[in-house]
Specification:
Elements: E1 6-7, H1 12-35, H2 49-79, H3 82-106, H4 116-130, H5 132-143, H6 148-164, H7 168-178, E2 183-186, E3 191-194, H8 202-223, E4 228-229, H9 239-266, H10 277-300, H11 306-333, H12 357-381, H13 388-410, H14 420-447
Antiparallel strand pairs: 1-4, 2-3
Helix pairs in contact: 1-2, 1-8, 1-11, 2-3, 2-11, 3-4, 3-5, 3-11, 5-6, 5-8, 6-8, 9-10, 9-14, 10-11, 11-12, 12-13, 12-14, 13-14
Length: 464
């Protein structure tokens, strides 16, 4: 295997920027569908639509920003320029501020998030979050200004960054000015009410379009960054990251089994004796997911082929989405509610709103497929043949998981009585998914063995 003489920019950075941009645009459009009355329902779940969309959108953005921050730090390590440092600082700041915002937003009661210290925190984060998109573009332009392609992309990327980085008062003024005519006096209500109109789509449409344009611009700017000679930067072989991923996957499997047993024992029982488990279970599962995500982020910035780096970045974002959703629902479920307005006092890990099981199933499928793809690419890079058994197990887990994951994810979040169907569903899903985690861990360990292309030569061997 020949090692290239030039080191390209980290492939995980454009992937993370595009995911963050699409997530921001999708959340803006989805929330405006509810605000404009286009997507309305009189069902009992309508009141939970807004927080669920906000929770899911922010979770994807947090995961993408963390991966982008790690990739930008790898870019700083390779280029050692002020522009790359500015880009890394922008993504790191955005990651930290988004995590702080997550905590301040989901503490109960939600409707008081704009008052007191939470209101002050959210006011500051609104201003701080506005700056990183523009700063990231400025840093990438400064780092690669010598390239003609960077100079061609720079005006559009800077313009999109300026729109995304508009301060909150300017955004509020734009909404008020454009939608002024949509407010009409209502005799029945005795006040002005906003009537749905196409003008309500102007500002959200501009923001969503600018977000997508910013993501494309960042991806192009990263792609046009001049590569650096490999001898200027110490190599980062993927073997240590693969070993950490192996341990994290095995820990995740053990935690999943323990959490499933604990849920099966206390599901449908009175909540008084099992109250600590409502906090312990999601925290332990979230920490196990953090370990997997950290190993995937580390793997994405090592010296692997671009296909593996991109797949590892996507898997890391999917796992970090799970972490952020678990954190938001855990924080929101710790509410002083002695009257128990949401149902009988039975054991349940989370209070409403619950993230739909099918959404979690899609994210789990993306994470497993991306991990399998990354590991297969790394195995081929190291001259190994991808394991057919792993592929069969992963595919089987996806097929059965697609049928059972909505049940399993709903299990433990609602106060449900045990039944033979739920027990059989939980056991089958647990066995198959456990086999998938172990198969992925085996593949990661196999790729990290000395047969890897990055391993040092054995005693008596001649390098090369």
């Amino acid at each position: 295997m020949s090692i290239p003489a030039l080191r390209p920019p980290p492939p995980a950075l454009p992937v993370a920027a595009l995911v963050a941009a699409v997530a921001h645009a999708g959340t803006t459009v989805a929330l405006n569908l509810i605000r404009a009355g286009t997507w309305s329902s009189y069902g009992p779940s309508y009141q939970w639509r807004w927080p669920l969309i906000a929770m899911g959108g922010r979770a994807i953005t947090i995961g993408a920003m963390i991966v982008a921050a790690a990739a930008a730090l790898a870019l700083v390590r390779a280029r050692r320029s002020a522009g790359a440092a500015l880009t890394a600082a922008a993504f790191v700041t955005s990651s930290v501020v988004l995590c702080v915002e997550l905590v301040a937003t989901w503490i109960w009661p939600w409707h008081e998030a704009g008052a007191g210290w939470r209101g002050d925190v959210l006011h500051v984060t609104d201003w701080v979050i506005a700056a990183p998109p523009l700063l990231a573009v400025i840093g990438l332009c400064a780092a690669g200004w010598a390239d003609r392609g960077v100079r061609l992309v720079a005006p559009g990327a800077l313009g999109a960054g300026l729109v995304m980085s508009s301060p909150p008062p300017l955004t509020s003024w734009a909404y008020a000015w454009v939608e002024h005519g949509t407010w009409q006096w209502s005799v029945e209500a005795g006040s002005y009410v906003q009537l749905p109109d196409t003008r309500m789509w102007i500002v959200p449409g501009v923001l969503a379009s600018a977000s997508v344009a910013w993501g494309i611009g960042v991806a192009l700017l990263v792609h046009r960054q001049p590569p650096v000679p490999v001898d200027t930067v110490a190599p980062r072989p993927p073997a240590p990251a693969l070993r950490r991923l192996t341990v994290a996957l095995l820990v995740m499997a053990a935690v999943a089994v323990a959490a499933g047993i604990a849920l099966a024992l206390v599901q449908g029982k009175p909540a008084d004796g099992a109250r600590p488990l409502e906090l312990v279970i999601p925290i332990v599962v979230g920490l196990a997911c953090v370990g997997v995500a950290a190993a995937l982020v580390d793997l994405a910035v090592t010296d692997v082929v671009p296909v593996a780096a991109r797949a590892a970045a996507v898997a890391a974002i999917a796992v970090l989405w799970c972490v952020a959703v678990i954190a938001a629902q855990t924080i929101g479920s710790q509410r002083p509610d002695p009257d128990d307005r949401f149902g009988p006092p039975l054991f349940a890990v989370f209070d409403p709103p619950w993230m739909p099981g099918m959404v979690g199933a899609v994210v789990a499928v993306v994470a497993i497929l991306s991990m399998a793809s990354a590991l297969n690419a790394i195995a081929r890079q190291a001259g190994q043949r991808p394991s057919r058994g792993q592929t069969v197990v992963v595919v089987l887990a996806l097929v059965i998981g697609a049928l059972t994951t909505p049940w399993v994810l709903g299990f433990g979040t609602r106060s449900l009585e045990m039944s033979s169907l739920r027990v059989a569903t939980l056991v089958s899903a647990a066995v198959v998914n456990l086999a998938a985690w172990i198969a992925l861990a085996r593949s990661a360990w196999r790729s990290s063995r000395p047969t890897s292309a990055y391993a040092p030569p054995r005693r008596g061997e001649v390098p090369g």
